[in-house]
Amino acid sequence: MNRLSSALLLLTTLAGCNQAGHDTSADEAAIRELISQTVATNNAADTLGWVGLFEDSAVYMAPGMPEVTGRGNLVDVAAAGFGPYAAAVEITPLEIEILGDWAFARSHVSGSVTPRAGGDPIAVDVKQLVLYHRQPDGTWKIARLIMNSNS
């Protein structure tokens, strides 16, 4: 094993040891609050509030559409969804894992969206995986949002 490989193995092992003994309850609480803010901005059709939950280099991957890269490009995505529909959704975290400055949540999104122009509500039944990234100021932002419909 060369010196670089040995050093990488040692760093990986030390990082694992530090994480194992680290109390992540405050980080998990911050992620749960971010999930609550995601629900609130969705249900309020708050385009700028929703986009503000993402980091600058975020990637958004929704079913049936190309990925959207960068927070600036998410404004159009949010406006396209929030404009014609009123949402009443909940996000239920099924698993939250904190991995240093990164975290992920596997969640279920349920509820409905109703066309603003009239019509019957459309059921929402979505599974999602969200990667969160701790920012330099210590706050958490959405780095990757990947979702797929259950129906």
Structural description of this entry:
By secondary structure, this protein is α+β, with helices and mostly antiparallel strands. Strand 3 and strand 4 form a beta hairpin. The relative contact order is 0.16. The chain is globular, with a radius of gyration of 18 Å. The protein contains 4 helices and 6 strands; from the N terminus they run αααββαββββ. The chain has a 6-stranded mixed sheet, with helices on one face.
Widest sheet, order of strands: 2-1-6-5-4-3
- Rg over alpha carbons: 18 Å
Individual helix count: 4
Helix/strand/pairing category: alpha+beta
Essential attributes:
151 residues; alpha+beta; 4 helices; 41% strand; 6-stranded mixed beta sheet
Topology:
Blueprint: H1 3-20, H2 25-43, H3 47-51, E1 54-61, E2 68-69, H4 71-82, E3 85-99, E4 102-115, E5 122-134, E6 140-149
Task: Describe the structure concisely.
The protein is built from 4 helices and 6 strands. With 151 residues, the chain is α+β, with helices and mostly antiparallel strands.
